[in-house]
Amino acid sequence: MTDIEKDKIPVQQLLLPKPILYTGKTLNFFSPFLASRFAARLFLTPFRYKTPEREREMEAKSQKETVKVSKINRDVVVYTYGTSSKKILLVHGWSGSGTQLSKIADKLLELGYSTVSFDAPAHGKSPGKISMMPFFIETVHHLEQTHGPFEAAIGHSLGGMSLLRATKNNLAIKKLIIIGTANSVSDITKNFIKNLQLSSKVATLMKRYFDTKFGEDIDNYSGAISAKQVHIPTLVIHDHDDVDVSVEDAYAIDEQLSQSELFLTNNLGHRKILGDSKVIQKIADYILE
Fold first, then answer.
1. Is the C-alpha dihedral spanning 227, 251, 120, 277 positive or negative?
2. What is the pTM of this model?
3. Strands 114-119, 74-81: parallel, antiparallel or unpaired by DSSP?
């Protein structure tokens, strides 16, 4: 399968092994409840990757340290790239790592900024087997206290959703940039169940389980819900051909932001967008405005 063909398939469909799909279908047939718990465990389990070649320079040149985020009792690996006192926080997406936005970080370095990023729990080099959005959010708040202040923050996918929520909850930044960020958490869970080829009943049961686990309706974490209370300049970047997160999500988030700019691209999908020169230049221009 070519890279172009892969970009047209949701990443969950690419990564889920056939035995897992078979197990899910079997459980769905006998017990949708058990299938929902099986799916929930999978949903909270990120995939780990070897560091791609394009990210190795940032990994090698960054100051790395392991930090305990006390509120979630998790260790995370933190990357400080550059030495400038002008710092920008970078937040990766699900199954990503602290070097995922390396090409953006390189450009920011040229502009005189340093970056701080991290491997969320159970991602990259951070320990753990499961993760969830609140882990991302609490890590962001923790790093603001230990490694900030930050001039701006940039997040990809779930990282963008986490930053919207963190900014709503008083993350002190001057500008926010989100890339390929989803809106509805319910839609994310439904798409996950669809990719597992399970029934809608399983999706309903899984959401109910997460509502209980999170202690509130998980849709409160949705991008547009958080965006209503984000009042700083925000750049929303999204690709029309993103098969993992619909471009309609970008429109929904942008509509709720009080100070926003929508920058749309074509033929980059959910992942290539992070290394595109025009996208990176747009980010640089926005930071410098």
1. negative
2. 0.92
3. antiparallel
